[in-house]
Amino acid sequence: MGVIILPALMRKKPGPTMKFALTVLSILATASHLNAYMLPSVGTGALAKELQDFVNLVPIDKVLELTQVYQARDKEFQWIMTFLQSDDMKGFVEDVEDLPEYKTLMKYLLNQGLDGYTLMKDVKESMAANIEKTNVNSNLRITGGIAGYVKDVSEVISVYNMLNLFEYKVATSEVFKNFLHEILSLQYENLYTSTFTNPHFQRILVQLNYLYVDSNTFHTNFFTFLIAKALIIKSTLRINFNLLKDMNPQIMIVTMVAAASVAFFGFLAYRIRVRSNDPDLLSVLPLEDNSSLDEDLKDILAFVPIKEVQRIIERYMEYDPQIGDTVSFVNDQKRFILREFQNMPEANKLINFLRQNGLDVDSWQEKIRCFWKMSPKFIKYDPSMAAGGLTVMINKILETMPLDELHELLRQKVKYSASFRRFLYTLRSKDYLELCNAIETNDVLHHHYFWAKEGGLEITFAIELFNELHAYLTQALVT
Fold first, then answer.
1. Where in the sequence is the domain holding 354, given as residue range(s)?
2. Which spans in 266-320 are helix H?
3. Are residues 271 and 297 in the same domain?
4. By C-alpha distance, which of 261, 265, 263, 267 is closest to 40?
5. CA dist., res. 96 & res. 117, Å (int)
6. Which domain of life, per UniProt (predicted)?
7. Whole-number average pLDDT of the chain
8. Angle in degrees, 0-180, between the axes of helices 145-156 and 75-83, rounded to the nearest 10
9. How far apart are CA 252 and CA 141, in angstroms?
């Protein structure tokens, strides 16, 4: 069955979902205002339109006030702003512009509808500008230091909303998925690693270390501080934040322009922070909406003719010898198998994550236990009632289901249910891979696998079926 039916649901290859893109776009949006800026577009403007949605999520008033307070009161932050207009920083940016990878990227952005050259022009202007010393009349409390600035900014921005929008774009926008695929390709490796190899940038890091400034924080969040300076320069340092509504919109336009351009050669952050395309469970934010995995599962099961499926399973338990042997094997060995899973930290971590995202694990375990306890025993072999083992039984079950309608429901879940998207994240996470590795290397489970295979059970088919279901949920479903 898994070889015949499930692949029919896998209609397209997926684009990857990357944590890096969220990081870049969150920072890109830091310097925007809902009613004050439209990204510069060319041609169709398709990519500019997609990124505009991220721009519109950020409270510019709060970010601007925070940045100005740091510039007025924090010595370490002031040093960073000074370093950004140094000759070495200017030399670094010029070296980046000379890279063939940079030129390739800018050409791609133009072709996709985003004017990257305009963005870079404003970044350079902001970097070269002097910041006038001013006093800021604000009661805002800050953490302090450049690491504190990064922390405080991340608390002002709704990362949850950014993540939710990012997931939605990956699920629904070909333009956005193509953008991610392009910027994460290996052809830009020299661009990603430029801060590690460029002599100008390395000299800046040495000078920061000499001043006992955290050079690693600066390196990792380099483009964040470029955006911060653009905010200070382009806001004209107005202190009365109630007057922001009267500010020339062009000021905020240039601010956002400068912010966005930093992302183009800030892709190196992906290499600094994320060495894998797979998220880990700790990186997946908790739910803040009303969705839950319990409701998702109930909605999905509503498409399944439960009574008819139960009759098929019970009939095979009673009259198919292979299924009968499978039931006997599970009954004999389940306590040993369950004990191994209970002792796996990887399994417990995954279960706790599912609980936190609204799945009533204990309730579903009890339902499965009751079903198994009440299931019938094997009576006799009767091919007129049931035959073909697990493969045929699964095919018969699938024949009862409206697969096209179920596929569409799952697609809607991807778009509108944050809990279901987090479940898909789970299936792509490092923690899930670690669980799979723990299962494969467990000696007790390995022995049970061998015994099941020797006993003629369709264990290989069951694993293949599970793998195809995993591929459908993590690949075909999100294209």
1. 293-476
2. 268-273, 293-301, 306-319
3. no
4. 261
5. 13
6. Eukaryota
7. 75
8. 90
9. 25
- Number of structural domains (the chain) is 2
With CA atoms as reference, report the closest residue to 27 among 189, 230, 237: 230
CA distances from 139 to 66, 73, 131, 314 (A): 10, 12, 22, 69
The answer to whether the beta carbons of residues 83 and 222 sit under 8 Å apart is no
pLDDT in tens, 359-407: 888 888 888 888 888 888 899 999 899 988 888 898 888 888 888 888 8
d(CA 399, CA 422) in angstroms, rounded, equals 29
Q: For the chain, give me the number of helices (H) and strands (E)?
A: 29, 0
Q: What is the pLDDT of residue 455?
A: 77
Q: Does the pTM exceed 0.90?
A: no
Of the pLDDT bands very low, low, confident and very high (cuts 50, 70, 90), residue 200 is very high
CB 303 within 8 A of CB 405: yes
Return the structure tokens found at 444. 């007790």
Burial 14-42 (b: 16+ CB within 10 A, else e): bbebbbbbbbbbbbbbbbbbeebbebbbb
Instruction: Return the residue matching tokens 């510039």.
Output: 71
Whose structure tokens read 């000021």?
A: 251
Residue 7 lies in a domain: no
* Residue for token pair 């997931």: 167
Alpha carbon dihedral 79, 81, 82, 86, in 10-degree steps, equals 130
**CB of 258 closer than 8 Å to CB of 116:** no
108 and 195 housed in the same domain: yes
Which of 13, 53, 20 has its CA nearest to residue 37? Answer: 53
Whole-angstrom Cα distance, residue 400 to residue 309?
8
